[in-house]
Amino acid sequence: ILIAYVVIAALVAFFKNYAFSRVMILLSCGMSIALICGWRLLAQVFEKTSASGSSGIFGKRTLIVGTDAKAIALLKKIRARVGDGYEAIGFISSTHKEIGKLIADVPVLGSLENVGKVIHDLQITDVIFAPDALNYGQILSVIAKGRTQPVNFHLVPSTMEVMVGKASVDSLDELPLVQITYNIDKPLNQFGKRAFDIFISGLLLCTAYPILYLIPKMLGSSNESFLAKLPSVFSGRWSLVGIPIADAHERRSNNNALFLGKPGLAGLVQLQKNRSLSELEIEQYHLYYARNQSVLLDIEILIKTWLRRHHETARHERITRR
């Protein structure tokens, strides 16, 4: 709409016979945006209202993961905090045997196996994990199944220790509610990361790539290198910084795996290639990057990667001379 009205306003300068009033152009532009976006917003509100019997635009349609006494206590806390807007739609059980059962007049709507479908079908906005309801692996599995939906995940810890990184805390009386967030999943971080990939890879493709990769390859002296994979970064298939390519393929085949970004030419795990890392250490590196990702961190990793390769090349040359 904005582009169209900029073009319309510009055409006035070339076609004097169609000189529209600029005030009318601005008013009609604003009305078009309000009407085209507004009817969709109203449609969503009416759809959610008819489905749940309550306002869908202000209410937080909430699932509670867990069915034990702590989950019931959490339900009572949520109901007592009317101003927070949480509306408990149902429980999620660890097994399918309890589906359909009523707990404190709230139904058990699903299990860990179909939680993603429940979130999608009922348009859930918030999922709260009751204390000690699941282990960390199961929590990450639920997050992975719901990550394609616009849903917020919260953890009520048994202690004040937070499971993963940066989190915002919302207090339910004496019960802290910790929101689980990953930088790698935030739209602003994704936009900045993609813009950074395009800028750096495009710059290298126009400068270093032809000289250091294409020409030596035509002469038969080029090996696969960092530069060889730049076209995949520019196209969006890979990223400059991310998890190892082999790990990305393995996670793609596992539907329950937590999304940790695109495969990267460099990364925290790749920096440790001279060490023998355990699976736990690799996962810790992945989670650290996912929750702390930023353009500055990507730049730091790229600089360290370049310095390490430069150091290894210089050391190899010294050994060759000897």
Describe this structure in words.
This protein is α/β, with parallel strands linked by helices and 322 residues long. It is 50% helix and 15% strand. The chain has an eight-stranded mixed β-sheet. Helix 1 runs antiparallel to helix 2 (22-52). The longest helix is centred in the N-terminal third of the chain and has 31 residues, at 22-52.
Task: Write the SSE topology.
Elements: H1 2-11, H2 22-52, E1 60-65, H3 69-80, E2 86-93, E3 102-103, E4 106-111, H4 115-121, E5 126-129, H5 136-146, E6 152-155, E7 167-172, E8 175-180, H6 187-206, H7 208-218, H8 230-235, E9 239-241, H9 245-252, E10 264-266, H10 268-271, H11 279-292, H12 295-321
Parallel strand pairs: 1-2, 1-5, 2-4, 5-6, 9-10
Antiparallel strand pairs: 3-4, 6-8, 7-8
Share of β-strand residues: 5-15%
Strand order of the largest sheet: 3-4-2-1-5-6-8-7
User: Biggest sheet, open or closed, and with what strands and sense?
Assistant: 8 strands, mixed
Summing up helix and strand content along with how strands pair, one would put the structural category as alpha/beta
In the predicted model, the low-confidence regions spanning at least 5 consecutive residues are 49-58, 160-167
What's this entry about, in short?
This protein has 322 residues and is of the alpha/beta class. Helices cover 50% and strands 15% of the residues.
Key features?
322 residues, alpha/beta, two-stranded parallel ribbon, 15% strand, flat
